[in-house]
Every structure is written in C-alpha cells, then in structure tokens.
C-alpha cells in the first residue's frame, strides 16, 4: 500500500509538474474540492478520498479538521487552516491575508468516525509507537477492509510487540469485515479476536452469527462462549471495584459525621453543607489558578485540601460556638437548628455563586482509565479510594496519638471527670466539631471531582452519611470504614440485578432490619461510655 | 364543605375583579397610568429546582420590563409578582392560589417539573386562571387553563430517535432515565414507537435511576457491554438535571466516545453544560426546539438583551427561555386582541395566535393549547455550545396525546371546536378512553 502510494504520489507530482497550466483533476484535487462543502456526505467522501490520494498535506489537513481548525470559503471553495499565526492555504501552505468569508468545515459524528479511520490508515507508519497504537485502534474500530494492504505493510515493519498485537487485532477485524477473504485467514482472525477477549472483540464476533462460511460461524460461536466466560469473571471483579470506589465516597462523606455525630453525639444536619463548602473552596482555588497561574492547575487539589479544611472547619467552629453549645443535651432542638443552618448555608451559596453548577476541572492525573487484566480502573476513582483511606488513617492518628485526640476522647467519655482534670471542655467541643467539619470540607474537595458543584451537593450525601455512621456503630471509626465499604459493595452487586432504585430500597430495608436486631450497629461501643 | 365555600368565595371575588377590570378599562384611560396588569411568576428560587428555574424567573422579568418600555399592554404597565415555591410540590399549589386569589394576577408563567404542574392544575381550574408552562414534558394532557409552550414528545423525542435511526444507523437502544413521570412516559412512547419501527424487544434496554444519582459506574459499564452486541448502539437519555454531570463524567472516564455510542439527551441544555468540561463530550447529542447557537437576527438580539439584563457577558440562553419568550408574546397579543385580561376571553383568543420564534420560524398556538415548533438536533461542542446537525423541514405541531400509545391514540384535544381536552374519536365522547 505504502509503495503504491509513493508511486501514485510520484506520478501525481509528475503530472502536476508536466501539466501545470491545464492542471488535470487529480484525486487530491477532487478530495479538497469535496471537503470545502456544507454537506456531511461530501465531507465524509472528501476525507476518504484525501486519505487515499497520498497528498503529503493529508495528515495536517485531517488533524485541523478534527480540531475544528479547517475553514473554507463558500464563494471560491478555498480551504484554509487556522494556525497560531493566522490562516494558511490548506493545499499549498501559503499565508492568506484575510479571514473574511471563511467558516469552519462542519464535523458531526459520521465525519468524526471517517476522520478517525483515515487518520488511522495514515498514521500506521508514524514514527511514534503511541501514534501507531492509536492508529491501529482506529482501524480496529473502523473495520475497513480497504486498510488491509496498509496494515500488512505496517505489520511487516513493526518492532514494538504491543503495537504489533494491536495491528494484528485490527487486521483480524478488517479481515472479518471482508467476506471474500480466504476462509482459513478469517478463522485465524476469529482466534486473534478471542485472544483479545474484550467487549469490542465480542461485538465483532457476535456480528458473525449470520456469516456465510460455516467454519467462521462455528469458530465465532466457540470464541463468543470463551470471551463471555472471561467477561463474566471480569464483571464480578469490576463490580467489586465499583463497590470499593462507592464505599470510599461514602466513607469520605460520612467520616466527618462519625466525629460530630458519632463521637460528640450532635445530630448535625448541616454536615452536608460542610462538604459543599469544601467543594466550592476547590472551585475558588481553581478559578484563581486559572486566572493567575494556569501552569499550577495540576496542583489545584493539593492546594485546595488544606484550604477546604480551614474554611469548613472554621464555619464548623462558628456553628458550634454560636448555636450548638447552647443546645447540648437537647437532640431535637439541635436537629432543627442545624437543619436551619444547612438551609441558610445553601441559600447563601446560591446567592453568592448562583444556582447553577460550577465547573471544577479534573487535573491531568485524574483523567482517563487504566486497564488491569481486563478491569477498567479510572484514575479519578483510584485516587479517591487512596485519599479516603489516607484521611481515615490520618484521623485515627489524630484521635489516638495526639494530645488533642486524647482530650477529645476523655471529654466524650466522661465530661465532668475530664473537666476536673483541667481540660477546657468547651474548647475541646468546639475544636472536635471543627475537626469533623473540616474533614467534611476535605471530602468536598474529592466529591467535586465526581459530582455537581452546586448548592445542593450536600443534601445528596447527608442521608447516606447518617446511614453509614448508624450502621457502622455510633462512635466507632472502624465501624464507619467497614459500614461504608459493605454498603458500597452490596449496592454495586445488587444494582445489576435489581436496578438502581430497587437496589437502594433493598439496602435500606436490610439496614432497618439490621438495626432492629443490633440497635448499636456493627461495632457497638462497650463499657461505661455507652451510658454516658 | 369548607373547601366548597372557599372556592365559591374565590369565584365571587374573581367575578367581581374581572368585572371591575373590564369596567375600569372601558371607563377611564386617564387613571390607567396608575393601574397595572399583574403577571405571576411561579418558579422555584430555592431548593433543588432553583438551578433551572431561577433563570426562567429572570427571563420573565426581562420580558415584562421590555414590554413596559414599549408601553405595556392595553395602555397599562405590567407588574411582575414573583413568588418562591421552593421546589416543594404542595407549596406550588399554595403559591399559585396566592397569586391568583390574593394578588389577582392575570396570567401565571411557571412550573418546571411535571409534578409541580400537576399540583397546580386543580388550582388553575378552580380559580379559572391561565398558566403558561415552558418546559418539554411527557404529553398526555391538555387542560383548558394551561398553555404548553415546551415540546410534547412528538416535538423532541420522536424526531431525535428518527435522526439516530437514519443518520447514525442505530439498531440497539438504551433508554436511560431518572425515575419519575416524564422519563417513564416518554420511554413508554419511545418503546412503542421503536417496536412499531421493527426494533426487537431484546435490542431495547430501559433503565431508571433515582433523582440525583451520582455513582454511574455500574450503569455506564452496563451500557458499554450492551453496546458490544455487534450492532450500532445509542443511548436516549431522559436523565434529569443534577444527575447528568456525573453521568457524562463517567462516560468520559470509561472512554465511551460519541463516535462509538452516542448519547442523545432531552434535558441537557446550554445551562447544564455550563457546569462541565465539555471536551470529552464532543459529539454527544441533544434534541431541542431552540439552541443558543442558531444564527438568526432575532436570536442574536435576544442573547444580547439577556446578557445586558443579567449583566453577565457569558450568560447562556436555553430552550425553556425561548418557550417563555414565545408564550409571553402570545399572551400579550391575545390580551390585546381580546381587549381585556378576562381569563375566558384570553383563553378563547389564544388559539391561532402567531409569534415569530427565535430560530427563524413562526410558532402558532394550536386548539389543543400546544404550539408548533421546529426540532433541532445539536452536537455538543468543546465550548459548551451545540452545533445544529439536523433540523425538521418545517414546524412540528405539538400532540397533546401520543399517537404511539394504545391508551391515547384515539384521543384528541380541541378547545376551539370541541371544547374538550380529551375527546375520544372512537366513542365520540368527551372524557377520555
């Protein structure tokens, strides 16, 4: 294919040189003419023609088209590429003086698919292995039998084993799309796809059920069975991972509450709003970074974490000093008062930032997914799981290994005795509440990555948080951890069978029954602290 | 009993007011500078729905302000009465009653969710007032006191599915929705329509998730595996507001691109996209009757006015805003045609009223109290706007009753000739199936 292309190219160049004045319609001319159009079909045709024309500018033109930087002038059908320095003529690369009358060549999904396929066959021999890999994947998706010669040529030169395998898979996909290819080769292709063994391979194999060749049909049926067994195992592992990931989100949302409600016994309905404040702090940090120092964007989350802790913790201390301390021992009033506080905070944020969602971007290390033995693990979720565990460990250390933690435990276990020992219990209360709220703020930083940053953010987590803390056993951090993970995993295993709505109902019913049996949760506190 | 007396009193009060207003209009134009026509705005400004509805309150204030600059209506200034039903459905009914009975508004522009509309319906019937409802909804309704300026399913869902079938050659469908009345009814209609078009039951997967669903990992993975059956697959999303952002984030994370499995959404507009980085969503679709990116002089002027009014040069416009624009202007025309704000006369004057919409056509209020609208399919662009990739040839008249469902295909709504919202063409009776 490549040699052919070079030959064609040379011929075209010769013709162009020889027939300069007359300038016969070469394939590239036709392709460029088709691209300068308003009709998606024409543009699609133009892309395919351009890829086959061997025009040296084809790669650049396709890239510009994919980026929305290919423009055309409807009057004279001039194509231009929008560069940093201005417009250049697409074919010749000559600078164009004005941008008058140019509009972008429009792209829809059909055109985008054509671009991917065309770029695939062009990039198969690109110098960078990453590009070649992407090209092979694009050809795999396009299943274009016309790309076979190019694939064969590229395969012969390929040295990187990973890319080579991707190319073989692409070749198999293309072969199977070509019903007049030799049967033996197509049966071999089925085996290659069986080896790939993922959903995309399955899609192609399932499409073969009506194939004309019985050998291919049988091979495909066997391959489908084998891939399906494999995928079923993977699906279970995947569910477990989703469960852990959901559990870590629940843990993050609930762990602050495990302090304010679990340790201090305050029914804090404004807990969700602390999470929201943390998320809005992240938004503000990102805004400042975007405007002042865009280079630091990847650092926005590490910067936001301490700030969110301070903001939410500060607000928590204010709430404790201003309202809650007057209401200790009156749980109903505390519930109503903190609920009022939550409404006030929500509306305040709504007035300040507006009712609509705010955009919090994902740093580069949190985008995308990694494939581990067929499991697709998204980076964002992985970071959140690690972060939740780190917060859990950190909080345990604070409570178990610092003098502040010691005082907190002393005050919650026996307030009067602690006071008699010289601990200023009101301040311990305030700082403990601040610690719980601050942790909620940190959770907000993580949740801003997966949920809406809107004034309602907190509301959606408050019920789940209480559920986790009550289920795990009030006053026990380990209980919160186990409860969060149990609920997450159980939820994710129920969801595929029962659906999201029914799954949630089933879980709630289970927890109600469980609490009937064990009112103090999974890990009940024992000893005198219970009566206090 | 208590309620009966209440309504009787309210009716009396209304009758006196209506009479008084009519007489006032006849008697003295000199005092009219003092008098105003009140317009009620019933949109949530707090609670979960504030995210969508606050914008509609603002657009109504802008429209009323503009009309007043043009001299008001019937020589009187318009006065906006804004109440906050706080995303609380029963409160919608209370606030509607307050607007009509206490503030004596001539018409109400409001509601977003179907449940809020259903909650205020009895109030509007009892107190005989007018509601303009600006949001796309599930259809299967036509009330004398309500004018539906949003899309019925045949003006949004069905054309979108047609587009996917023709242009993207989709053969396998995931109908993904939030669990409440709009997605459930729309999906029922779509399922019947797809089956009528020869799609096999095993090629349709219908799923519902709770409001505010934020963990989409399992669902997106399920969509991915449903899409690996060797047939082109698409997702038709009736996922409501807040749950959309995590849904799209998860799609992007799991690497589902629009070129593989396109998602066409009926509740995702410019406002919703303002909260997400749209680059990974390139090419996913939405079906609406209006897009901010439609290039017409009217639309340009509207956007400019809106940005000036909100003092925010980046503020976006969306479909329900245009619905209010059309509805409000139709109401003004009908009041001027009737020469009064008397609800019965205005209701009679509204069908047949024409108003240029913002996308270059002329919408008309139909006898079934729905309007004619163009349908656009837009693809999400990197800047949070939509690129219109397809539109209907002309304007599509809204069907109050879906032709796809057994329970409603024989029903017809016509408030002009039949004076009935659910006339059964088989039994020739008013009153449904």
From TrEMBL, chain A:
Cell location: Cell membrane
Q: Which UniProt keywords apply?
A: Amino-acid transport, Cell membrane, Membrane, Signal, Transmembrane, Transmembrane helix, Transport
Pfam families referenced in this protein's UniProt entry, alphabetically: BPD_transp_2
Membrane-crossing ranges are 240-267, 299-319, 331-349, 382-406, 427-446, 466-490, 497-515
**Quick check: keyword Transport in the entry?**
yes
Tell me what topology the record assigns in the membrane.
Multi-pass membrane protein
Question: Signal sequence span per UniProt?
Answer: 1-24
Keyword Transport listed? The answer is yes
Q: Give the matching InterPro entries.
A: ABC_transp_permease, ABC_UrtB_bac, ARM-type_fold, BCAA_transport_permease
Tell me the protein family, please.
Answer: Belongs to the binding-protein-dependent transport system permease family. LivHM subfamily.
In Swiss-Prot or TrEMBL terms, this protein is called: Urea ABC transporter permease subunit UrtB
Annotated source species: Methylobacterium isbiliense
TrEMBL record, chain B:
Q: Which domain of life is it from?
A: Bacteria
Q: Does the keyword Signal apply?
A: yes
Q: Which InterPro entries match?
A: ABC_urea-bd_UrtA, Peripla_BP_I
Question: What are the boundaries of the signal sequence?
Answer: 1-33
Annotated keywords: Signal
NCBIfam families to which the protein is assigned, alphabetical: urea_ABC_UrtA
What is the protein name for this chain?
Answer: Aliphatic amidase expression-regulating protein
Organism lineage: Bacteria, Pseudomonadati, Pseudomonadota, Alphaproteobacteria, Hyphomicrobiales
């Amino acid at each position: 294919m490549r040699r052919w292309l070079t030959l064609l190219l040379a011929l075209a160049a010769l013709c162009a040189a020889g027939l300069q004045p007359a300038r016969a319609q070469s394939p590239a001319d036709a392709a460029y003419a088709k691209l300068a159009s308003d009709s998606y079909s024409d543009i699609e045709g133009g892309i395919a023609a351009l890829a086959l024309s061997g025009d040296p500018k084809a790669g650049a033109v396709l890239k510009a088209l994919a980026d929305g930087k290919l423009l055309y002038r409807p009057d004279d059908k001039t194509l231009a590429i929008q560069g940093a320095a201005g417009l250049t003529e697409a074919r010749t690369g000559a600078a164009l003086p004005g941008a008058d009358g140019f509009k972008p060549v429009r792209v829809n999904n059909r055109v985008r698919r054509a671009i991917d396929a065309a770029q695939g066959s062009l990039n198969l021999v690109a110098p960078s292995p990453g590009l070649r890999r992407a090209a092979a994947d694009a050809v795999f998706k396009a299943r274009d039998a016309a790309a076979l010669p190019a694939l064969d040529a590229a395969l012969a030169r390929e040295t990187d084993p990973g890319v080579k395998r991707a190319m073989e898979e692409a070749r198999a996909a293309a072969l199977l799309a070509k019903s007049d290819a030799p049967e033996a080769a197509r049966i071999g292709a089925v085996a290659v796809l069986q080896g790939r063994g993922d959903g995309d391979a399955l899609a192609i194999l399932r499409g073969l059920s009506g194939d004309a060749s019985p050998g291919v049909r049988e091979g495909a049926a066997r391959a489908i069975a084998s891939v399906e067994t494999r995928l079923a195992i993977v699906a279970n592992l995947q569910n477990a991972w989703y469960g852990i990931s959901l559990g870590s989100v629940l843990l993050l949302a609930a762990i602050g509450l495990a302090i304010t409600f679990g340790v201090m016994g305050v029914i804090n309905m404004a807990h969700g709003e602390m999470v929201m404040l943390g998320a809005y702090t992240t938004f503000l940090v990102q805004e400042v970074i975007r405007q002042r120092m865009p280079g630091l964007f990847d650092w926005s989350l590490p910067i936001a974490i301490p700030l969110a802790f301070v903001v939410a913790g500060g607000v928590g201390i204010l709430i404790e000093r201003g309202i809650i301390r007057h209401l200790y021992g009156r749980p109903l009033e505390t519930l109503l008062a903190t609920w009022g506080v939550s409404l006030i905070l929500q509306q305040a944020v709504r007035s300040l930032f507006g009712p609509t969602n705010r955009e919090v971007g994902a740093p580069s290390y949190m985008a995308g997914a990694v494939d581990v033995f067929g499991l697709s693990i998204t980076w964002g979720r992985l970071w959140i799981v690690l972060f939740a565990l780190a917060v859990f460990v950190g909080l345990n250390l604070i409570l178990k290994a610092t003098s502040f933690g010691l005082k907190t435990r002393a005050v919650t276990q026996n307030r009067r005795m602690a006071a008699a020992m010289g601990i200023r219990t009101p301040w311990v209360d305030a700082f403990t509440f601040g610690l719980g709220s601050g942790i909620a703020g940190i959770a907000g930083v993580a949740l801003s990555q997966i949920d809406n940053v809107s004034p309602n953010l907190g509301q959606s987590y408050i019920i789940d948080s209480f559920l986790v803390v009550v289920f795990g056993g009030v006053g026990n951090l380990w209980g919160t951890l186990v409860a969060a993970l149990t609920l997450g995993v159980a939820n994710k295993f129920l969801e595929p069978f029962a659906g999201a709505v029914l799954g949630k109902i089933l879980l709630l019913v289970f927890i109600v029954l469980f609490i009937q049996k064990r009112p103090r949760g999974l890990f009940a506190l024992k000893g005198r602290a219970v009566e206090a | 009993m208590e309620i009966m007396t209440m309504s009787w009193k309210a009716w009396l009060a209304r009758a006196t007011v209506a009479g008084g207003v009519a007489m006032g209009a006849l008697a003295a134009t000199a005092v009219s500078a003092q008098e105003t026509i009140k317009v009620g705005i019933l949109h949530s400004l707090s609670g979960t729905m504030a995210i969508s509805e606050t914008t509609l309150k603002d657009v109504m204030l802008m429209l009323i302000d503009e009309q007043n600059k043009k001299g008001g209506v019937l020589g009187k200034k318009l006065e906006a009465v804004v109440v906050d039903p706080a995303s609380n459905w029963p409160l919608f009914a209370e606030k509607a009653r307050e607007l009509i009975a206490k503030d004596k508004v001539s018409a109400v522009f409001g509601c977003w969710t179907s449940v809020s509309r259903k909650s205020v319906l009895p109030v509007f019937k009892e107190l005989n007032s007018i509601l303009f409802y600006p949001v796309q909804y599930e259809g299967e309704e036509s009330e004398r006191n309500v004018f539906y300026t949003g899309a019925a399913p045949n003006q949004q869902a069905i054309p979108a599915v047609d587009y996917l079938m023709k242009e993207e050659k989709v053969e396998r469908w995931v109908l993904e929705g939030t669990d409440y009345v709009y997605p459930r009814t729309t999906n029922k209609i779509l399922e019947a329509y797809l089956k009528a078009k020869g799609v096999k039951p095993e090629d349709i997967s219908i799923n519902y998730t709770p409001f505010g669903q934020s963990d989409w990992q399992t669902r997106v993975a399920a969509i991915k595996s449903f899409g690996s059956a060797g047939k082109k697959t698409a997702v038709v999303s009736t996922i409501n507001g807040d749950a959309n952002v995590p849904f799209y984030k998860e799609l992007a994370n799991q690497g589902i691109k629009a070129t593989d499995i396109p998602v066409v959404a009926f509740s995702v507009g410019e406002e919703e996209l303002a909260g997400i980085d749209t680059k990974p969503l390139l090419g996913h679709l939405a079906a609406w009757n209006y897009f901010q990116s439609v290039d017409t002089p009217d639309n340009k002027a509207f956007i400019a006015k809106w940005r000036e009014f909100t003092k925010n040069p980046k503020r976006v416009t969306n479909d329900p805003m245009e619905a209010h624009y059309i509805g409000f202007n139709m109401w003004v025309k009908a009041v001027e045609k009737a020469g009064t704000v008397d609800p019965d006369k205005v209701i009679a004057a509204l069908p047949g009223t024409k108003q240029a919409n913002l996308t270059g056509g002329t919408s008309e209020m139909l006898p079934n109290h729905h309007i004619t609208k163009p349908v656009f399919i837009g693809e999400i662009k990197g800047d949070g706007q939509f690129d219109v990739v397809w539109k209907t040839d002309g304007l599509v008249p809204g069907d109050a009753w879906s032709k796809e469902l057994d329970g409603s295909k024989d029903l017809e709504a016509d408030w002009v000739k039949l004076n009935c919202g659910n006339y059964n063409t088989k039994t020739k009776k008013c009153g449904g199936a």
